[in-house]
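Lab notebook: predicted structure, single chain.

Context: the supervisor wants predicted structures on file for every construct in the current expression panel, including those that have not yet been purified. This is the next one on the list. No modifications to the sequence; it matches the entry in the shared construct table.
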Amino acid sequence: MYIFKAGVVGAGAMGAEIAQVISFSGLPVVLKDVDPALLDKGMDRIRNIYQARVDKGRMSAGDMESKLALITPTMDYAEFADVDIAVEAVPEKMAVKHAVFRELDGICPEATILASNTSALSITEIGAATRRPHRVIGLHFFNPAHVMKLVEIIRGQATDEETVGDAVSFAESLRKIPVVVKECPGFLVNRLLMPYLNEAALCLEEGAASAEEIDRAMVAYGWPMGPFTLMDFLGLDVCYDVGAYLQSQYGERMKASRVFRKLVEAGRLGEKSGAGFYGYGGASDEPARQMIAELNGGEKRSDFTPERLMYALVNEAARAAEEEIAEVRDIDMAMIAGTGMTYHGERLGPLAMADQLGIDVVVNGLEELKEKHGPRFEPATRLRQLVRQGRLGQTAGAGFLEYA
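Prediction complete. Output recorded below exactly as produced.
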């Protein structure tokens, strides 16, 4: 199905940026919110993105106005009566999403794709609120949507192949990299990223190292930013909510650090609130240091190594491959495109990284971490299988991938 017009529900940061991305591709788009102030703020955000392109000489002022003219701000669902795809970008509350999807289901044409930008909630459950669950799909953009190339395409249990194909084509028309993912809690990138971020927070909670030391080490390892800088950027409330949800679904191996709750309850939500692990705009990070000291008693109760964080990520990636959440190459591509992950300067995802290190080396490292830190480091079954098969990675000619 060719998409001639799109709609976005929710004019917050993500919704506004998704609308900007759609308009930049040349498609008309309706942007809806229930709050006129948020709608105005969303339109201002879009104009600022375009203005930055004009300022850099990448677009003329006339082109900017042409793109802005493609966006129709509204508070009325009636504007969605002729859209071919509607993307929901409202808060991560299932009741709120159900209300939105019921409204869209009632007004949009029968063939319209109803997509959710949810980062973790069940597409199957969202689709159950409609009379067209076969046309409901996850379309998860990454923050900031106008910069990040990855879009996760998540199929619910009832989503049909035509809808998946249409969603992939739509993402490609936006100049994005679509990765088709089977539904699971956290989908792909967040499911893999949270163990890495949570392990960093546990290191902090246990006095293993400071936030600055861990951030510096992980940047030196190859990440574009350290885990605490990244969490402040994402929002600690978002990390807390996603972490709590993943713990409820996966159990003890995803048990969230107490650091998240402590900082969120203190109102330190990251950059957007002016303070998180770090202070912004003149704010101090000393209160965060004191809160963390209260948790670890000022004592060093464990050790930090970059491998402690990375092996947690690799292990979850191996589980995702085992469960066929996505193809091996797509798992790696998603982490590279969605997080900027590299390994010692080379653009490698977690499974290719494991092949380069040696699968046996990774398993032995996980066993050592399990002895020190508990069963969350139990090596994934797929890793043990590869070792038994002699598929130890690049040096053996085969691991997760094949090597000539």
